Amino acid sequence: MHSALVYEPPGDSIHTIIAFPGLSVHGYRDHRMDAVARAFSYLGFRVIVPCISDIEQLIIHPSTISKFAALIEAIATHSELNPSHRQLGIFSASYSGGVALLAASHPQISSSIKAMCLIGTFADFRNVIRFVLDQEEIDEYARFILLRNLLSQSSYRNPEVIQLFDIAVADNGFKKKKPLLPYSLQNTSKEATHFFCQLLEDAFFRHQVTQSALEEIDRREHWLNRFDLDKQLTHIDFSISLIHGYHDQVIPSHESIFLHKRLAQLGKKSHLILTSLLDHGDVVLNKNFFVETDKLAQGLGFFVHELCESTS
User: Fold this and answer.
1) Computed from CA positions of residues 28, 101, 249, 281, in that sequence, does the dihedral angle turn out positive or negative?
2) Which domains, and CATH codes, for the chain?
3) Are strands 16-20 and 46-50 parallel, antiparallel or unpaired?
4) Tell me: the pLDDT tens digits for 54-106?
5) Phi, psi of 254 (to 5 degrees)
6) In this predicted model, what pLDDT tens digit does every residue of 2-43 receive, in sequence order?
7) Cα–Cα distances in angstroms (integers) from residue 239 to residues 74, 235, 250, 265, 302, in the given order
8) Which helix (H) or strand (E) holds 152?
């Protein structure tokens, strides 16, 4: 069993929620996940936030899907974490949300789940890759992580360049007041520094390199096929609440819109909330705060209602 944070409710609980953390430098101890887990526990749920090595190390790879699936299966039958052996709730966001949905769609896993709530997740992983790499207005943190993964898993791997991306990710993720990247660039070989900077500044060069790297990885690891959600949706036998920020600069909101429409076509039960209250994981205050808060509550409420309905 993986290490995990377990949030117990004030009283007895008959429902268990697994909250899969996203690709954050803070790992499974991310304060945002902590806030969500505490909120669900106050509502009477036992919440488990697992520590999964791939997510902690910011690794993007389809093998993570089977790790999520194994963990779901283990918790579903665990005598202490799910003593009532009821169907589970799954909460997750971003990349981890898509991975959780892929894991949950395994026929032997789907029956263990009653409801899912996914925040800013993907429908077509290929679209997200292109969006993160090619769009000018983008969250740099996501681009750093994706570039690091594509380079480290392909023939473009260069230890110096990978280290620069590690530093860039940490600077951005921890919001360091004194970033280490400028100093590191001065103490790295000219070749590695030039390659790193060209990837960030030259969109055409970045497209060429990453397209080549992705094709190489896909030939070997079949990324695009294994990350393909569409062919797995028929196996889903639980409800899904989709919540997405209008101005998400990592995974655009049309990913959840498409996923919601596709689920409807397949006769699956889903609920979609688009909100200006979220970007890609953080709350954005605006003049419509109270209206948007109500919408967000509707999305979370659908998830809670569907999960609790298992006792009726």
Assistant:
1) negative
2) 4-124+228-311 (3.40.50.1820), 126-224 (no CATH)
3) parallel
4) 999 999 999 999 999 999 999 999 999 999 899 999 999 999 999 999 999 99
5) -65, -15
6) 799 999 999 888 899 999 999 999 999 999 999 999 999 999
7) 21, 12, 25, 14, 9
8) helix 140-152
